[in-house]
Amino acid sequence: MISSDLLASLSSTELTLEATALMAWEIGAVSSMDEVAQFMYRGGPWPPQASAPGSRRIKLSEDDPRPEKKYWAMVKDELTVFLCTNDRKYKELWSRINALENKGTSAVVLVVSGYLGEKFGLQASLLAGFVALFFYGILKIGKESYCRMVVPK
Q1: Pick from 38, 33, 32: nearest CA to 132
Q2: Where are the domains of the chain?
Q3: The predicted structure's pLDDT at residue 60
Q4: Where are the beta strands (DSSP E) in 9-132?
């Protein structure tokens, strides 16, 4: 499988289910991956749905359960190289994705999160939302536009 085939197989609706903060982009409250990511990491603002009646209030300085900001940077950096280059270090990840045989978007997010989790020594569940966010952003922006913007020639 090549990156364009992988992206064509992903569902933006399913990615939104994997990372509910993506709804902020859907409704136009934010307009970039990094703005959505702020809702997902520790210390960032709470996503719009957190203000709904009955939502749990957390003191940001004490009980913020969200992962640290550095995990977003790590996921974004790794997946940028994964999608925008032909780096051989991702041969194993491509093999895992190819083995899925059209299992769906959630399966791709799980496999990629698991692979990155192994690499970073973290649980896949900690990274899954960031992985879904990255793929959603690429679908929204376009792979070629994103890669031209972030990968130096």
Answers
A1: 33
A2: 3-150
A3: 47
A4: none
